[in-house]
Amino acid sequence: HGLRLTDDAIRRITAQTEGWPALTMLAAITVARHHDGASVHVSGADLPIGDYLRLEVLERQTPERARFLKETSILEHLSGPLCDAVTGGPDSATTLRHLAHSTVLIDAYGGRYRYHPLLREFLLEELQAQDPQLVIGLHQRASVWYESAGDLDTAIRHAFAAGDLDRAATLLSVSFLQQFWTARHAALMAWLGQFGDEEIRRRPWLAVLAAFKELEVGNTAAAGHYAELAERGSFHGPPPDGSVSFESERAMLRVLMARGGAEQMLVSASFAAEQEGDGPWGPLALWFLATARQVNGDLEVVDGILEKAVASARAYANSGLAYSVA
Fold first, then answer.
1. Which runs of consecutive H residues, i.e. helices, occur in the chain?
2. Which candidate among 24, 147, 161, 205 keeps its CA 20 to 30 Å from the CA of 261?
C-alpha cells in the first residue's frame, strides 16, 4: 500500500492484528486513509475491519453462538464456569472448545480462552450498540463470579464497568487492609480516583482510605483534601472495609495527620484502639496508638503495644502489617 511507517507504528499494527493476515491488510488500508503513520491505531470498530469480522465471523455463527460471542466479549479471559455465570446458559465449556477449534477463539490452555483483540473490540461495539442495559447486567454477573473466585481486582474492574459504584466501593474496601501495606499504591489510587468528591461524601470511609494511601507516598496536599472530606463526613454503622465504625477510622487518620497536637493524637489513638479491639483493624489501631504514645514521650509502653499489634496482625494473616510494625 506504499505506506511509510515508523518501526514503532509497525510494531503496534503487528500487536493489534496478532498476525491475522486479512486484518493486517485491512489495518494497512485504515492507516492509509488517515495518512498518519506516526500515530497508528486500529480498532475492531473501524469500518473495513468491522465489516470483515461481521461477514467472516459473526454472520457465520448460529444465532445462539452469535449471541454467546457478543455476551462473552466483555471478558478478557473465558472459561466454562465463568461464561455459564455471565450468559446464564449451560455447557459453555463445549461451546468454547468448538469456537476454539474453528479458530474464532484463541486457546489459552487449561480450559481458558481469549478473543483476538480486534474481534473482541468489534463484538463489544456490536453488543453496546444493540443493548447497553444488557452490557451492565453482564458486567455485574462477571463481578459477582470473580468475587466468589477470590479475584477481587477483576471483580472491581467489572463493577466499575457496570457503573455499580456501590459494589465497587464495597469490594475495594474489603480488600483495602490486605493491600494497604503493599506497593499497590497506583492501582488503589486509580480505583479511588474513579469516585468524585460527591461520591466520596456519600461513602466517607473512602476518604479515609484515600488519605492513608496518599500519606504513604508523601502526597500531603492530596491527603489533606481527602482528610477534609472525611472530617465533613458522617456514616452510621460499620463500613464495608471491616472497621468497627467510620468514627474509629477517622480517629486513626487524625493521628496520622497529627491533628490537634500530641495530646489530641493520643486521645484519637486511644479511642480507635478501644473501638477496634480484636477486630481486623485492631492491629492498625494499635500501631497508631504506639505512634501517639511515642510522640507523647511514653516510650516505656511502646514496645508492648507494638508486640500486641504484631501478634494481632499475624492472627489476621496480615503479613504486611506484621512485618512493617516488627
1. 7-17, 21-34, 47-56, 63-72, 80-87, 92-101, 117-130, 132-148, 152-161, 165-180, 185-192, 197-202, 205-216, 220-231, 246-256, 261-276, 282-295, 299-315, 319-325
2. 205
Predicted pLDDT of residue 39:
58
Q: pTM of the full predicted structure? A: 0.87
195 in Cβ contact with 165 (< 8 Å) = yes
Q: What is the pLDDT of residue 325?
A: 57
Sequential DSSP letters for 81-111: HHHHHHH--S-HHHHHHHHHHTTSEEEEETT
Ranges under pLDDT 70 in the chain: 34-40, 181-183, 317-326
Could you tell me if 52 and 22 are in contact, meaning their C-beta atoms sit under 8 angstroms apart? Answer: yes
260 touches 247 (CB < 8 A): no
Cell of 19: 498476525
Query: Taking Cα atoms as reference points, which of 54, 9, 58 lies closest to residue 30?
Result: 9
Q: What is the pLDDT of residue 85?
A: 97
DSSP secondary structure code for residue 38 in this structure: G
Q: Per the structure block, which three cell numbers stand in for 269? A: 489513638
Return phi, psi of residue 56, to 5°: -90, -20
